[in-house]
From TrEMBL:
Name of this protein: FAD-binding domain-containing protein
Cofactor needs: FAD
InterPro entries, A to Z: FAD-bd, FAD/NAD-bd_sf, RIFMO-like
Keyword Transmembrane helix found: no
Organism: Streptomyces griseochromogenes
Pfam families to which the protein is assigned, alphabetical: FAD_binding_3, Rng_hyd_C
Keyword terms of this UniProt record: FAD, Flavoprotein
Length: 382
């Protein structure tokens, strides 16, 4: 890879031989071992945890019985309980379906062995891990899936280097399952419209730089709660058990449950907004309000399907609509009513974050200049 002020040049070796590509930008969405990140010289510092995780799906032999509650009756080993079983050697997970002889299996244990990711996991390797963690032999038949992975906590030092950008696992690795999917998709929708604005020539100065500012902030937030999960899951002594029990009790209460749900979903982020005197909702995800229009009932989510900026007038404010109309080639202008109106109007970016909001009955002499500033700051010169 090489880049200058105008383009990125990439030399590629593929199945049909070497070739060269020239593009305005290069986005590395090429995973944990990103060649784009390494080629750009972007540090990817962090920690690799000693846990080895094994995940598999198998059919069971006829000698093993799936009980009504999901447990397994295994000759010679007795009952193996469904769900998660923690021992002083690790964690074993079992998921079953009474209607099927297919089971999902999971083990995690600390190991000093370094496995080559290019070497596939074997049935014997999984059975040995089950025996070490659970102290029982589990006969297995046909493997449908075999996977081995470790947990890492790493984040790219920067998500942009000139005309080279990173997204997804190339930009961050989190030490817990599932959240990387949310984070990667949110990277993509944040970056896509900003790249489009630049390529189409209407991006205001510094728009593309906000990709790193916003998504690196979000990545750090995701790293916070996934590393907290490490602390919750890795301890095997009585103090760790007490921590897990207290945490589970907290999640029975509605407010902590909502807080944790937003953390895991990545929806608790408030991006920093340029300018001053912001509404408290600016920088947050737009709520999916039910909207009543002349054409019928719709919602914020339905309006967002065009992947364009949305100006939403909720209080019949013609002076605000006229201001937004100056950006009509880029911004969709909508008028609607909603129950329990939270604000008079909203300016929503294509990634569903609020760029500006007018408080209820906010005077025009303050709302109009602030709206114009937000429109120019995010969507360029009208």
């Amino acid at each position: 890879m090489s880049q200058d002020d105008a383009a990125v040049i990439v030399d590629v070796r593929g199945p049909d031989g070497p070739y060269r590509v020239t593009a305005r930008y290069l986005v590395g969405c090429d995973g944990a071992r990103s060649r784009v990140r390494d080629g750009a010289g972007i540090p990817f510092l962090g920690t690799t945890y000693p846990e080895v995780n094994r995940l598999a799906q198998f059919t069971l032999p006829d000698t093993v019985t799936v009980l009504a509650n999901g447990d397994l009756d295994v000759p010679g080993s007795g009952t193996i309980r469904a769900g998660f079983t923690r021992t002083d050697r690790g964690l074993f997970g079992l998921g079953t379906s009474p209607a099927s002889k297919v089971v999902s299996l999971y083990t995690t244990e600390d190991e000093g062995i370094e496995y080559d990711d290019d070497t596939p996991m074997t049935v014997t390797e999984l059975q040995d891990s089950i025996r070490r963690v659970l102290g029982a032999d589990l006969p297995l038949e046909e493997p449908l899936r075999l996977s081995r992975f470790t947990f890492k906590a790493r984040q790219a030092e920067r998500y942009r280097d000139g005309r080279i950008l990173l997204a997804g696992d190339a930009a961050h690795l989190f030490p817990a399952t599932g959240v990387a999917l949310n984070a990667g998709m949110l990277d993509a929708v944040n970056l896509a419209w900003k790249l489009a604005a630049d390529i189409h020539g209407w991006a205001p100065a510094g728009l593309l730089d906000t990709y790193h500012d916003e998504r690196s902030l979000a990545g750090a937030r995701t790293m916070l709660h996934t590393q907290a999960q490490v602390a919750l899951r890795r301890g095997y002594d009585p103090a760790a058990e007490a921590l897990r029990q207290v945490f589970q009790e907290l999640l029975v209460d509605e407010q902590p449950l909502h807080r944790m749900g937003a953390l895991v979903a990545g929806t608790d982020i408030r991006y920093p907004m340029p300018g001053s005197h912001h509404h408290p909702s600016a920088g947050t995800f737009a709520a999916d309000l039910t909207l009543h229009t002349d054409q019928g009932t719709t919602s914020v989510a339905e309006l967002m399907r065009t992947a364009r900026p949305i100006f939403l007038d909720l209080a019949d404010r013609p002076e605000l609509r006229e201001t937004a109309d100056d950006w009509g080639q880029r911004v969709e202008v909508h008028t609607a009513k909603t129950d329990d109106r939270p604000v008079d109007a909203l300016l929503i970016r294509p990634d569903a974050h609020i760029a500006w909001a007018a408080t209820t009955d906010e005077p025009a002499d303050s709302a109009v200049p602030a709206l114009r500033e937000a429109l120019s700051g995010w969507f360029g010169t009208p």
